[in-house]
Amino acid sequence: MSLLSAPDIRSGRLNADDYARHFADASPRLTPAQAVLEAERCLYCFDAPCATACPTSIDVPSFIKRIADGNLRGSARAILESNPLGGMCARVCPTENLCEAVCVRNTQEGKPVAIGRLQRHAVDALMESPRPQLFTRAAATGKKVAVVGAGPAGLACAHTLARLGHDVVVFDARPKAGGLNEYGLASYKTPDNFAQREVQWLLDIGGIEIRAGWKLESVAQLDALRKDHDALFLGMGLSTTHQLGVPGEDLGGVQDAIDFIATLRQTQDLSSLPIGRRVVVIGGGMTAVDAAVQSRLLGAQEVHMVYRRGPEAMSASTAEQEWAQTHGVTIHHWLQPIKIMANPSNSQHAGAVAFARQALVDGQLTATGETEVMEADMVFKAIGQRLGNPVLSACGLKLDGGRIATDAAGLTNLPGVWAGGDCRAGGLDLTVEAVEHGKQSALAIHATLSNPQ
User: Fold this and answer.
1) Per-residue pLDDT at 109 exceeds 80
2) Hey, CA dihedral for 323, 437, 192, 31, is it positive or negative?
3) In angstroms, rounded to a whole number, what is the distance separating the alpha carbons of residues 378 and 291?
4) Residue 132 burial (CB < 10 Å; 0-12/13-18/19+)?
5) CA distance 181 to 89
6) Number of other residues whose CB lies within 10 A of the CB of residue 252
């Protein structure tokens, strides 16, 4: 094998028109006429399976019926009552695995009602209307709640508590609120700064203060939050990326996919963002797909996404995998990275990745003895994240599999402390589930504060 003569990483691989076209909205909005026609396909089922499949229990037939009747504001209310981040979830929720998978039209005809696109249609119409705020706060309760993490779980918790009359302070390490909605999703899924527009809509209800640049780094900090507030919700997500644990992982050109995506999301001029000519993405989830596709959209000539098991085990949905393939990403299965090889012209920089072929033997992944080498001047790691904050165990929180153990409402083993989202044990790592965690914990906090023992 002949490695690249030198690492080929540079910016400006495309012209301005190509960048604009490549990172335009991946799912064009429905026109009003299209929305009505699609809404009229709904059978408005009693005890609808789509509503049951929604983690936030949106009354799907109700909001769709209101679209058909031309009542977009009422439709948006039906959505946002159950899911205050319904606009973002409409864009990124894997509806093909949830509500649309069980749609009666899908089981009968193989073509579900486009629930996600209809949800976006209604929420976008509200957000762009002269009076986008639907909700008002209840009378002030005098109670103050701290929320750590301004991602979907934390924002949903804060908004629900604010509606109920509580004051909320949200602490977050990043400069902007939004969590993965702002820093971890592909740009083509959330164009036109939608993540921040949704955050502003949430904050407009009042009673929510965002304190950016705050990191949980000591037990004393957490103790102070508990002392200074009537309740505490932890929704900090997963901050530490799993490592490959192979030689060469510290070479130049090797980075976490989530960091690449965050940098891309915050880059105003995409032509200034360097990308390799040949890119290898290691992982089989949505983050891997987002990193791989966006590498292609930035002008990478070859992008390989490599996963150690078969396609059925990938956490990226079938639709996500097909999206990657239609954008020129080659997906490989049954390959485990064993070494990142240095480029011969620059020993400090990656030049290729060596993989061992795998097979299932008695249910266990086993190397077959075959190896494969892929040239790469950039390597993105997307093999999952973990909580990785020693403060949590040090303060006495019970952990389960490295995440915070809670009851069904999110209550931890520490009195007055709830948790939700990706940092909570036993979840699906979905935005829509994080929203539900935040909402349910807020309701539990409200009940506790309203009825002190």
Assistant:
1) yes
2) positive
3) 11
4) middle
5) 9
6) 16
Residue 267 structure tokens = 């880059």
- Measured CA to CA, the distance from residue 339 to residue 91 in angstroms comes to 37
For residue 361, what are the contacts with CB-CB under 8 A and spacing of at least 6?
A: none
Q: How far apart are CA 120 and CA 106, in angstroms?
A: 20
Read off the pLDDT of each residue in 244-254 and give the average, rounded to a whole number.
97
E-only strand ranges, 3-109: 9-10
Tokens matching residue 379:
């390597």
N-to-C CA span, the chain: 71
Question: Pick from 159, 236, 170: which is nearest to 203 by CA?
Answer: 159
Name 41's bridge partners. none
Among 217, 230, 222, residue whose Cα is nearest residue 168: 230
Contacts of 117 (CB under 8 A, 6+ apart): 27, 29, 30, 38, 90
pTM of the model: 0.94
Q: Is the pLDDT of residue 2 over 70?
A: no
Tokens of 301: 């000539």
**What per-residue confidence (pLDDT) applies to 1?**
45
What are the backbone dihedrals phi and psi of residue 382, each rounded to the nearest 5 degrees, phi first?
-140, 60
Residue linked to tokens 């011969």: 344
> What is the rounded CA–CA span in Å between residue 162 and residue 156?
10
Pairing of strands 385-386, 275-276: unpaired
Contact 351, 342 (CB under 8 A): yes
The rounded distance, in Å, linking the Cα atoms of 288 and 247 is: 21
Q: Which domains does the chain have, with CATH numbers?
A: 32-127 (1.10.1060.10), 144-239+387-450 (3.50.50.60), 242-384 (3.50.50.60)
Residue 220 host element (H or E) = helix 219-228
- CA distances to 26, 105, 260, 330 from 319, in Å: 13, 18, 22, 15
Tokens found for residue 214: 């705050």
What count of other Cβ atoms lies within 10 Å of the Cβ of residue 436? Answer: 24
**For residues 7 and 279, is the Cβ–Cβ distance under 8 A?**
no
Residue type, 97: N
Task: Report the mean per-residue pLDDT for the chain.
Answer: 95
- Which amino acid, one-letter code, is at 207? G
Question: Could you tell me how far CA 139 lies from the centroid of its own chain?
Answer: 33
Rounded to an integer, what distance in angstroms lies between the CA atom of residue 113 and that of residue 357?
41
Taking Cα atoms as reference points, which of 41, 114, 29, 39 lies closest to residue 70? 39
Q: How far is CA 161 from CA 202, 374, 390, 410, 415, in A?
A: 12, 51, 28, 15, 18
